[in-house]
C-alpha cells in the first residue's frame, strides 16, 4: 500500500502513521476485507477530514485552512490558562 505521508510530518509521526496503517491492514485481513476496499474506506475518511477542516476554517472560525491548527492550538492554550478547559 502506498504511504501517504504529509511532507511536514516528522519521522516519529510517519512511523506512528505507518504503524496505524499496518494495524488496519492486519485487521482488514482478519475479517476478510480486501486492501482495495480498505483503501476506498481510508480515502473516504481522508475526504471527510478535508471537508470537515474546510467547514471549520471557513464557516466556524473564519481562518484560512493553513492556519486552522495553529488557531485551535492557541485557543485551547488560552482556554487552559484561563481555567476554561
Description:
This protein is an all-alpha fold and 85 residues long. The chain is 75% helix and 0% strand. The protein has helices at 11-30, 35-61, 65-81. The N and C termini lie far apart (40 Å). The mean pLDDT is 88.
Percent range for β-strand residues? under 5%
The major beta sheet can be summarized as:
none
* Rg from alpha-carbon coordinates: 17 Å
The coarse overall form would be: elongated
Helix count equals: 3
Structural class: mainly alpha
SSE pattern, N- to C-terminal: HHH
In round numbers, the mean pLDDT is 88
Low-confidence stretches: none
What is the helix content?
over 70%
- How many beta strands in the DSSP annotation? 0
Report the end-to-end length measured between terminal Cα atoms: 40 Å
Features:
0% strand, 75% helix, mainly alpha, 85 residues
How is the topology of this model organized?
Layout (H helix, E strand, L loop, with lengths): L10 H20 L4 H27 L3 H17 L4
In short:
This protein is an all-alpha fold and 85 residues long.
Amino acid at each position: 500500500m502506498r504511504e501517504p505521508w504529509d511532507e511536514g510530518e516528522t519521522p516519529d509521526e510517519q512511523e506512528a502513521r505507518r504503524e496505524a496503517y499496518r494495524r488496519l491492514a492486519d485487521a482488514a485481513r482478519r475479517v476478510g476485507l480486501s486492501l482495495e476496499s480498505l483503501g476506498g474506506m481510508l480515502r473516504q475518511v481522508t475526504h471527510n477530514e478535508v471537508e470537515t477542516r474546510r467547514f471549520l476554517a471557513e464557516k466556524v472560525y473564519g481562518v484560512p485552512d493553513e492556519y486552522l491548527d495553529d488557531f485551535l492550538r492557541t485557543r485551547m492554550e488560552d482556554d487552559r490558562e484561563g481555567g476554561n478547559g
